[in-house]
Write a structure and sequence with these properties.
Length: about 425
């Protein structure tokens, strides 16, 4: 089992190039199933979740050619409709093939995604909304058996709760449905906008008719296209916080700053200096970090995927801060590990109280989920002494070349077997 060794404390200095977005790539890969032609994707991040999704597509009959950050998918012979547990269990986004398979074939058998460290991760919102497009389904031994006997029929659907995955599944399914679908109370994460842009470019008829509402008129098929995936805003936010927590000086490149204006405003509010250029954010850390109370929310609120990372920074603040995790029911798995490094964080339900003025000390640590694992790295970078982070397969799911990018800006970090 591989581990990461990190020797702190170091100030990060230099520039970091941000990769393509994992969470935009995954729904776009699923949506490529709608096409019977070749789809050319650029700026694909080389991370484990992409590998898992391409293995899932191959198991469905797609022909995949992945070289560096370019991916060609040929679905001309794709004809299978069974997504197995072995592939879906490690990556929840596997459920996103359900919508396109139903749209294309009118039936599918897709494994329910396993739960994960951060919560049970149900798919009830996906299934209830799909049934409004005429889908009949039953769940047998952990699989969704779904059919659309008369094909998918457009309808008016209001999501009972904002869900990124359910919004994505329905956008993809409705794109080939007969007639018009109105989706309301949609998630509006930038990755969803990227999916919509990809589908419009491939010939789909989709329009935003209100902040959280879409009008989708089904088309017969989608044309073959090439598309470049947006930047990974969570990776960008992670490195901004890394600069702040190490009192460093970083230029974050290949980004669109306005997409992460919430995060930038919060980092400015707690005391870092930030200059913005067209595709670059220059951040200078500050010894004095002001405490702040944060709650995670659906976009454009503060992202739950940066909650663990900002918690590390708030341990360095001048007094106590609070964090309320409003998206997932169990996303404080990193707290116990941070407390072993000297943090003083207490949690009650979905609220965390984060004491300030902490000096982290290196320790032997255990990663539990993707974003928790990167928060341990941030703490280790500013900790005195050596830290060892175990189970870094969690990290490899979503951060491309993280040691290389950090080493380049002065971190003392290495992967050991
Ligand atoms: C997406 O997960 C992201 N994953 C997550 O990023 C991100 O944390 C999450 O959106 C919220 O922004 C990908 O894009 C691949 P949801 P998703 O459906 O779609 C509940 C990362 O680190 N819910 O918006 O699964 C759910 O349990 C990952 O990159 C239902 O109850 O998130 C959660 O509490 C982690 N029923 C809340 O809604 C459903 O049918 C939000 O989930 C669906 C969701």
């Amino acid at each position: 089992m591989q581990k990461l060794e990190v020797f702190g404390a170091n100030k990060l200095k230099g520039q970091i190039e941000i990769s393509g977005s994992k969470n935009a790539s995954l729904p776009i890969l699923a949506a490529s199933l709608l096409s019977n032609k070749k789809v050319y994707l650029n700026n694909i991040p080389r991370v484990k979740d992409i590998e898992t999704m391409t293995s899932l597509l191959k198991s469905l009959g797609s022909i995949i050619n992945l070289k560096n950050n370019k991916l060609i998918i040929d679905n001309s012979k794709q004809n299978k409709k069974f997504a197995s547990y072995s592939l879906v269990k490690t990556m929840r986004a596997g459920i996103l093939v359900l919508g396109p398979l139903l749209a294309k074939f009118g039936n599918a058998k897709v494994s329910l995604p396993g739960g994960c460290a951060i919560g049970t991760r149900p798919v009830d919102i996906h299934l209830n909304a799909l049934s409004k497009l005429g889908v009949k389904y039953k769940i047998v031994q952990g699989y969704v058996y779904a059919t659309a006997p008369k094909g998918l029929m457009g309808n008016k659907i209001r999501f009972s709760k904002i869900s990124v995955g359910a919004t994505e599944n329905l956008i993809i399914a409705a794109s080939l449905a007969k007639g018009t679908t109105i989706l309301s109370n949609c998630a509006i994460e930038p990755e969803i906008k990227d999916l919509v842009n990809f589908l419009i470019k491939s010939g789909c008829n989709i329009k935003w008719i209100a902040q959280r509402s879409l009008k989708i008129t089904g088309v017969k098929e989608i044309s073959n296209i090439s598309y470049s995936i947006m930047f990974d805003r969570i990776e960008a936010g992670t490195y901004l916080i890394a600069a702040a927590v190490t009192e460093g000086n970083l230029k974050i490149k290949n980004v669109i700053p306005k997409v992460i204006k919430t995060e930038i405003n919060i980092l400015k509010k707690i005391g870092t200096k930030i200059n913005i250029k067209k595709n670059e954010i220059h951040i200078i850390g500050n010894k004095k970090i002001k405490s702040i109370n944060i709650k995670t929310a659906a976009y454009p609120g503060f992202p739950t995927d940066l909650q663990a990372q900002i918690m590390v920074l708030l341990c360095k603040a001048n007094k106590e801060s609070t964090i309320k995790e409003d998206i997932f029911e169990n996303r404080f798995m990193h707290v116990a590990e941070l407390n072993r490094m000297g943090a003083k964080i207490s949690t009650s339900g979905n609220k965390a109280k984060v004491n300030g003025n902490i000096d982290f000390a290196g320790a032997e640590l255990m990663a539990t989920d993707l974003r928790a694992s990167v928060s341990l790295i941030l703490a280790a970078l500013t900790a005195k002494g050596k830290s060892v982070i175990n189970r870094i397969y969690h990290l490899d799911r979503g951060y491309e070349n993280i040691e290389k990018k950090l080493k380049k800006v002065g971190a003392k970090i290495r992967r050991v077997n």
